[in-house]
Amino acid sequence: MVGDTPQLALGVDLGTSGVRVALMDPAGDLRHQAGCAYPGPFVQPRAWQQGLIQLCSAIPSPLRRQVAGLAVAGTSGTLLAMDAAGHPLGAALPYNAAQPQWASRCRQLAAPGHPAASANGTMARALELKHRYPHAHGLRHQAEWLTGWLLGQWRWGDLHNSLKLGWDPLRGGWSGAIGNQPWSGLLPSVVRPGAILGSLHPPVASKLGLPATVQVTAGTTDGNAAVLAVDPQPGDGVTVLGTTMALKQLCPEPLQGDGIYSHPIGNQWLVGGASNSGGGVLRQFFDDATVAALSRQLDSRRPTGLQYLPLPAPGERFPVDDPQLMPRLEPRPVSDALFLQGLLEGIAAIEARGWARLHALGAPVVRRVLTVGGGARNPTWRQLRQQALGCPIFNRPHASTACGAARLAREALMEIA
Known about the structure:
Layout: E1 8-14, E2 18-24, E3 30-37, H1 45-57, H2 61-64, E4 67-74, E5 79-82, H3 103-109, H4 122-132, E6 138-141, H5 142-151, E7 156-158, H6 159-162, E8 167-168, E9 173-174, E10 189-191, E11 196-199, H7 202-208, E12 215-217, E13 220-221, H8 222-230, E14 236-241, E15 245-251, E16 261-265, E17 268-275, H9 279-283, H10 288-295, H11 336-360, E18 368-372, H12 379-389, E19 393-395, H13 401-416
Parallel strand pairs: 1-4, 4-12, 4-13, 7-10, 14-18, 18-19
Antiparallel strand pairs: 1-2, 2-3, 5-6, 8-9, 11-12, 14-15, 15-17, 16-17
């Protein structure tokens, strides 16, 4: 607190379809939340900046003046190349852009079993960007690049985003031979999420209408921020149902396996994986209003038996790591409602296989699942998932990724108070 004025924490979520912001007070209560579509393609970094400028300008002035801390969450694995001044060299490569041509090189560079050894990992995208832009000065994830813009310098990366790029949190360094490459200077200096990196760059503060004294902290991935937003307890699993689907749970030890990620959170590990399936598959056939209307016609007690594998395109990351895996979306029934139910059943089946895979690798049994993201607003989908998983599911539609990022910034402010 400064006098009687609460210091607010601003969380920024760079999602697949747009930007969201959330303002949190020291008690953890939300004071403001808003979102907008990107004013340009998702892969264009300028659209991330412009979206944030638009949302900050719409925050009421009294609240803007109280912002004291800021953290950014971004899609895990979305990577871009930049020049020495931080300017992007072309579009970013998105998180679901597997690069199978670099698969063997990734296996040579990263330690066996590390996420960076996969063609779906960020190291494969890093090798592709390095090939496309041989004079690049740096490689940064989506949240890291925007954080660099906020600071006016792009030195830093965060431990959570850097995992798929090759960071090994157990040894506190780059996995395998990654750190010894002639190009390893392209990689960020890695710090823990929530570490305070500095104050807002004054010209950027002016564009955002925020105080230049705002403390910028290292960010995290969208999936991890969503977990922070719901504060899971032992026995909880968290499913992030957005354009794609991420499964996360707390575990006393890290797990190893293709497509599996283990992020340190306090004295535990946040383990999980992300499927390419999710709401993005539904949007290939129906808009959100149609999904909501058709969902009310479904009978979750009568399975369709369609056995779909709803992927938006060839390739999957988790529960199987296979960049060539083909979608299975036929036969299509005449009824749109039955087709939608088949898609929802297929996504639920992928989720069930995901939780089973984590348990087989050593994670605790999930006794209930908390759901965040756009899919958490669909009660019919929750019923289908509950049948597939065999445990209670609780939707948390208001616990957004932006809230989790705000919580990260709030905790950083509390440490320095």
